[in-house]
Amino acid sequence: MSHKRHLYLYPFEHSNAFVARTKQAFCELGYVPRSFKQLFGVHNLFHRKDNAVVLNWYEDQPFRKGLNTITRPMFVVSFFFTLLAMRLFSSNVVWVRHNFKPHNVAKASLLYRVVISMLQKIANKVVTLEATPEIKAAVVKHPLYKDDAHLLAKIHAGHQQHRSIDYLYFGSIKPYKRLDALLAVWPQDKKLVIAGYCSDHNHAAELRQLIRARHLQVTWNNAFLSDEELESTVTNTRFVILPHDDNAMISSGTFYYALGLGANIICFDSAFAREKARAFEFVKIVDRERLATQLDAIEYVTSCDVLTSAYQHYNEKAIADSWRPVLT
Fold first, then answer.
1. Count of CB atoms within 10 A of residue 28's CB?
2. What Cα–Cα distance (Å) separates residue 186 from each residue in 98, 204, 240, 272?
3. What are the two backbone dihedrals, phi and then psi, of residue 228, each rounded to the nearest 5 degrees?
4. Given this structure, which CATH class describes domain 6-143+316-327?
5. How far from the centroid of its chain's Cα atoms is residue 261's Cα?
6. How many helices (H) and strands (E) does the chain have?
């Protein structure tokens, strides 16, 4: 592959480390990642065959927060113009579809369906981070949030530190992630730590009311955690809980974050959970109706064994290799 090929990435910078980790995979393949905005230079009209575009969460743009009734229509028009012009500047447009439904609206609107339809037509390739029968797409591997050097150092050290948090739910708190469903059946004799911020004040109030009404042993400070605080919390956890409903997500950054820090995973039943439980002994599926008895029966897998499996399946070469056929 030519080392002169450029890859224009949207977004180029993001608080989600998925973007930075994926950039590293592109560099491994000989690409030079650039900001998406740089794609639309006149010179790229004459070098479109040398350019690749990778779009993450692009379908969410017309629904971004902070736009009003005047600025949103203007933004949507510019969004569609950019979308239509994209293929003039690149011969390979790759759309990474992260979600079944939009994040910032309650349900899929007509506008969202139009955006999805146009992206499917304009993108040369659609990719997802897990195989799903609902979407015809190539599959690339989700990167871990820790690099190979970190994983190997932890594996070779072999030290099993004490983990004082038995059960943890972490990440942004939104209705589709079904923390409410978890709290509705959570055993009263088990401690649960919640580490995440809920920006929906009504939903946060509902969750707090549920905790009080059921007299649950839940610790929750409804605030953002720093990267250091989150890493420390997950590193100190035995079991991370994923209560998502089926078809609520294609992949889960929470899963890969926890995996890279050696935690075991407990899930409610979903296609994603079934796939991961088949692959890893430290992923367990529980029945909501029998949660209390099943939690007591789950065998803990050591963090060293979790990290070894994480490295074997999701090392940096494996991530880059999964992207190779998509970008060529």
1. 15
2. 29, 17, 14, 22
3. -65, -40
4. alpha beta
5. 16
6. 12, 12
- Angle, CA 11 vertex, CA 5 and CA 15 arms, to 5°: 130
- Domain coordinates in residue numbering, the chain: 6-143+316-327, 161-301
* Fold (CATH) for 161-301: Rossmann fold (3.40.50)
Of 103, 207, 220, 100, residue with least CA distance to 170: 220
- Quick check: do 6-143+316-327 and 161-301 share a fold? yes
Contacts for 184 with CB less than 8 Å, ≥ 6 apart: 210, 214
Q: What is the pLDDT of residues 4-63, one digit of tens each?
A: 589 999 999 998 999 999 999 999 999 999 999 999 999 999 999 999 999 999 999 998
User: pLDDT tens digit string along 253-271?
Assistant: 999 999 999 999 999 999 9
Contact status, residue 230 vs residue 193, Cβ threshold 8 Å? no
- CA separation for the pair 225, 244 (Å, rounded): 21
